From TrEMBL:
The lineage of its organism: Bacteria, Bacillati, Actinomycetota, Actinomycetes, Streptosporangiales. This is Nitroreductase. The keyword Flavoprotein applies. It comes from Streptosporangium roseum (strain ATCC 12428 / DSM 43021 / JCM 3005 / KCTC 9067 / NCIMB 10171 / NRRL 2505 / NI 9100). The keyword GTP-binding does not apply. CDD domains: iodotyrosine_dehalogenase.
């Protein structure tokens, strides 16, 4: 069928597999993803910058509202910036944990993760990546471009980012120091960008431990 287009379209022929292979591939991918855990104990071993770039490339393949790709991944390797981010994050988190800013309900929801205001891993890891969401775009003349489905788009991109790191044997944490407006200043980002997630990236420490969590069964995840 010859469709009429007002904009350029190109053929797309995704690979197809026999049904048995679809299931094997799906199962292998699921098992691979099921081995991923959020990590809070990292090694200080260096990680090639290329790996971080590949994870950002992967995030950048995510679908987005109107293909506006409303994300920016800021890659930070220098120790002084990591130190400043740790310091600022811990100031906020001390108010959360020791200053009573977390509601009792929130505190009890977090208890099993044994999190606290010490964010030493922000200095241990070789890389921090801060994902910023572009609330709106800015044209060269300074006028604003409305962005659609920013949260959904950036959330999906971050999911791809996490999966790419995991595929390379790297670990991360979806860290959302609360509030995290300080990241705008430290990262020197413009006013149209909102800090979305802070990712410490590295190898899990040789003695890393994670909470003994159970994923909810398919019968609860699917309706
Ligand atoms: N931002 C705090 C608290 C925290 C909140 C959630 I929701 C978590 O899943 C984990 C921690 C912190 O980083 O410690």
């Amino acid at each position: 069928m010859a469709r009429e287009h007002s904009h350029p379209f190109i053929p797309y022929r995704p690979v197809r597999y026999p049904e048995a292979e679809m299931v094997t591939r799906g199962r292998e991918f699921y098992e691979h993803m099921d081995r991923r855990r959020s990590v809070r104990f990292f090694s200080d071993e260096p990680v090639p910058r290329e790996c971080v770039e590949l994870a950002v490339r992967t995030a950048n393949t995510a679908p987005s509202g109107a293909h506006q790709q409303p994300w920016k991944f800021v890659v930070i390797g220098d120790p002084e910036t990591r130190r400043r981010i740790r310091e600022a994050a811990e100031i906020e988190e001390r108010q959360n944990y020791e200053g009573g800013r977390l509601t009792p309900e929130w505190r009890s929801a977090l208890a099993h993760l044994e999190t606290g205001s010490d964010k030493g891993y922000l200095e241990t890891v070789p890389w921090l990546v801060v994902c910023f969401a572009e609330k709106y775009g800015v044209r060269p003349d300074g006028t604003r471009v409305k962005h659609y489905y920013v949260n959904e788009s950036v959330g999906i991109a971050c999911g791809f980012f996490i999966a790419a790191l995991h595929a390379m044997g790297l670990s991360t944490l979806t860290h959302t120091p609360n509030p995290m407006a300080f990241l705008t200043g430290i990262c020197g980002r413009p006013a149209n960008e909102r800090p979305y997630i802070l990712f410490p990236i590295g190898y899990a420490a040789a003695d890393a431990e994670v909470p003994d969590l159970v994923r909810k069964p398919l019968s609860e995840a699917m309706a």
